[in-house]
Structures
1.
Amino acid sequence: MFLKVAWLVLRKDIAIEVKTREIFYTTLFFAVACVLVFSFAFVKEGVPVEGAGVGILWIAVIFSGNLALGRTFERERYGETIRALLLVPAPRAAIYLGKLLGIVALMSLTELLLVPMVAFLFQAPLFSWPMHLLALLVLGTLGFASVGTLFAAMLMRSRTRDVLLPILLYPVTVPVIIAGVLGTSALTQTPADEPMATLWISMLAFFDVVFLTLALWMFEPLMTE
Amino acid sequence: MVRKLFTPLVVLTAAMFAYAPIAIANAPYESTMLLVQKIFYFHLATWMALAVAVSVCAVGSAMYLFKGHEGADRVAFAAAELAVVYCTFGLISGSLWGRKAWGVWWQWDAKLTMAFMLEMIFLGYLIVRKYGGPGSEKLSAAMGIFGAATAPFIYKSADWWRTIHPQTSVMKTLGKNAPPMWNVVWFCGTAFVLLFLVLLALRVGLEERRAELDRLYLEAEA
């Protein structure tokens, strides 16, 4: 029942997204624009500053993720479908899970295009440890999105949600961002520091468990009027 | 009960703060940093009180969120405000110490970054409260719980990431190696926690009066 509800919510979001592709295109465009803007600051005389690619990658991921979070819930609010969603006789946590998976899927899709682009533009050796990079990105995205989905959902009622979302989200997810950036840096430096990257991956997994547990636990009382 | 205890608490706190400089002056000098190390007594005491503030805020937030206690929400709000105050003071005293010990005002080391993050979380708590509109109490309660969840990472960050900041193991060995210093550390820590309690009681009292005023307004209008 729980997983079925989560799956239905996820399928609904995917169906809308496949039809309009609105969030995917805007998010991807924004991420690319981010990379472009940062390239001016971190490319000196045609050569990128060492390690700049990793930072730019993560900033683009986080910023575009923020955009996707806002839009996903704005759509629910605009269509006044969130009330219907919350009236479903199912555990609220299942709705949260469905929404979370939708956002993770969307962010992963963006990353799929963003990572090769950054590797290409900034000559970053991102693909020398593909499995480690994959683990860092997946866990980092999950950690960021788990808090983000909760906050975006609860801010729906607030008039100032667009401003408040990043204000609340970034400080709380700093541990995830630190772990992601430092873990990826450890992989791309020469020589690569594989044990360090593994340490950061386990840190990320740890943060994910904490954040996900808290979010699942708090979603129900937060969404109750 | 709170009202009866309040005056003795204020007197005790004032007395402890009056005596604290003397205790710190009498404590033995640290072998390498000498006079500069004396900042340590207030610096560490601030973070001890901050840990109490963050815990109070989290417990209050959780009680409000899950049980709907309005009083707990007021306590959490007051504790969050004080957490911001203590965190600011801790960052400033740490910065002063860092200038002398490391030669720089600010170092992007794990513990400092994480402490900065905690300050941002609790500032976020206050911002939501002020600008979140109706229902913002619940949003800020979530912020308080997340802030407390990340606090243990801040405490242990210097141990795990082996950065420039002194590790928490200093505290474990200090009791054995330098009992006079150890006593002063705890004296200052207690004084800061008591100050926190005094300020918390005052702030909660103010919030209670504000809630009472709101209630009376509504009654007068009805």
2.
Amino acid sequence: MYQDLNPLLHSRLRLAIMSILISSHEADFVFLRKATNSSAGNLSIQIEKLREAGYLIAEKSFQGKMPRTTCRITSAGISAFEQYVEVLRQYLPGERG
Amino acid sequence: MQNYLVYIINLFIIATNLKFNTMETSLSEKESLDLIRQMISTAKNNLQQGMGNIFLLWGYLVAGISLGTFILLLVITGEARYYAFFLWSLMALGAPVHYRLIRRLERNRDVTTYVEKIMAWVWIAFSGSIVTLIAGIILSAFFVIPLFTDVGTNHDAIIWFQWLFLPPAMLCLYGLALFVSGKAYGFRPLAAGGVICWVASLILLACLHLPRTQEIQQAMLCLCATAGFIIPGHLLNRKEQNHVPGP
């Protein structure tokens, strides 16, 4: 039934990450973890998957002595998200055709 | 032993991933949309904690300097009264404090929305416009106005008249930046401050012919700094104190 939906985005955590990044210029790893209510390990894995697909950029920096990871959506990520939402609309009553 | 540990850790990661993937398959189309809506709302455009202090810094600085200039203009007579305007060079004191406040804001910022990014550029453009106006007036006094060679031309009067246009132009730009900020962040006092600045700019343009126009301009700048920066700044800080931090 969901064969047209992008499997990379059709995941609770990855979709949550992409939804936050589509509406923000950039988001901190800690913010993403708290907003998605996920564990750091799980979030890291999903961010890495999205990064490998070219959907986001993860920049590592230092804030004083503390390491910091900031994520930003790419144009490929924006296109994939828009396409995902477009396909999703077809499944909703009254949205088809 | 070390290899064994790495193997166990990898197994744990794969297991969590599998668990997660199982959870993924149960995501319905309605749940997907609800999730998107919920996540987008977490990164909504709230004015960030500490933003009020930046408005207070520039508000008190402009209000203090304009009030000081106003008093000096009332007290000093003759040619020396022009020196009262040198008080405005104290505005440079705001730059290092502003830099420190911005650094602190950035340290505490965990998400940057597009609106925040655009608003930062609006305020940079505002500062750039003010600097351009002042630089333009100073440069024209040295390089353009001396070129007017008609008999009876009073060069000092032209330069002085150019300076008279600066406060209304500044207030017009204050109005633009404050109104856009207020509307973008949904914070009415800022937008109201912007409208007040526009009205004040119009009043100043209508008062250019009056003998006490410089005093009126300084008083109006003080009033607008209070209405556009100081009052919204305090309201913003009070709002932040009552605000429960997001996720």
